[in-house]
Design brief:
Elements: H1 6-27, H2 29-36, H3 45-68, H4 72-97, H5 105-125
Helix pairs in contact: 1-2, 1-3, 1-5, 2-3, 3-4, 4-5
Length: about 130
């Protein structure tokens, strides 16, 4: 049995994490790029790091809004999108690194976390 509102609470937690990552990308893009697994070597690349952070922050804000409305269906869609984004991020970073490194496990963690969240949200539909 799943506790009431667990999916909503975990969604709000995921949203907060995405908002934090987005903010970190704006203020410390070099450090975020290293944590991401793709250290920046050019000044122009910082713009892409910030854009990725903006994407994460916007997704986090949308998830937070859906959680505030207790919109389980919307949250399930966002969880599925989180799985896809994390998988693409992992694939892109891996393609550039050409080997697994510890930094890539954050992307793998996103896949696992959003997958667990999706399962919980689907179970709460019942």
């Amino acid at each position: 049995m799943i506790p009431a509102n667990l999916g909503i609470s975990l969604s709000a937690f995921a949203a907060s994490a995405l908002l934090g990552i987005g903010g970190f990308a704006v203020v410390a893009p070099l450090r975020l790029a290293q944590a991401y697994g793709l250290p920046v070597r050019e000044g122009n690349a910082l713009g892409f790091v910030r854009a990725t952070g903006a994407r994460d922050a916007i997704l986090g804000a949308a998830i937070l809004a859906a959680a505030a409305r207790h919109d389980l269906f919307g949250l399930a869609i966002f969880a599925a999108l989180g799985i896809a984004l994390s998988a693409f991020d992992l694939a892109i970073a891996y393609a550039h690194l050409r080997r697994m490194r510890r930094e890539l496990f954050a992307h793998f963690g996103g896949i696992v976390g959003f997958s667990v969240l999706l399962i919980i949200l689907i179970a709460e539909f019942r």
